[in-house]
Amino acid sequence: MLVTALEPESRAGGVRVHVDGKPYGTVAPADVAELRLEVGDALDDARLAALVRRAEVFAAYVVALHVLRSRALPAPEIARRLVRKGHAREAAETAVGALVAVGLIDDAEFARHYARTRARRKGFGPGRLVRDLRRVGIAEREARAAVREALASEGLEPGALAREAAARKLKGLAGLDRTARERRLRAYLLRRGFARADVIEAIREALAK
Questions:
Q1: Segments in the chain forming alpha helices (H)
Q2: What is the pLDDT of residues 135-186, one digit of tens each?
Q3: At residue 25, what are phi and psi to the nearest 5 degrees?
Q4: Which of 39, 48, 87, 115 is within CB 3.0–4.6 Å of 150 for a Cys-Cys bond?
Q5: The pTM is what?
Q6: Reduced to 3 states, what is the DSSP secondary structure of residue 202?
Q7: Is 99 strand, coil or helix?
């Protein structure tokens, strides 16, 4: 089997490799250099297999770039999405690793930004923020560190956030008796990830007004 053309492709700067006159796969320019591909080369089974692997990784890389244009996500979540789209796990993880290496994926910065925005905009407590970060693949230790850093950088204190959330929620519970309001507030604040001590204090303050 012969390499019959190396055609630049606009999609993420790839190079389409033609073998025996037909498109065989698109790879990164670095892959062309590493595999020493030139027009007229005869490809043995080993080089063909390597070409297929590189093409699979490049295809996953292109899809990952498209995902990142829509929204920032951590490496584990992007890899999961690639696998769900039909890419082999090894190709998905290699593609994601390449994006991490060039700084297009930064899990620590993602986690801090995620925690900052959801604490301020949605009033979530630390427990909920950590759970949500864990759900998208951030390790628990890194998630907890990111939440601490994010809240500190924004000057957000969990107890104050809990009191604000309780005051807002209480407005919609005006028709209920005190016991029902207390029960609803407790469930609401715990779901939002606040510690029990902060929940108790927030409810006490809200119902005292």
A1: 29-34, 45-70, 75-84, 89-101, 107-122, 126-135, 140-154, 158-170, 178-191, 196-208
A2: 999 999 999 999 999 999 889 899 999 999 999 999 999 889 999 999 999 9
A3: 170, 160
A4: 115
A5: 0.79
A6: helix
A7: helix
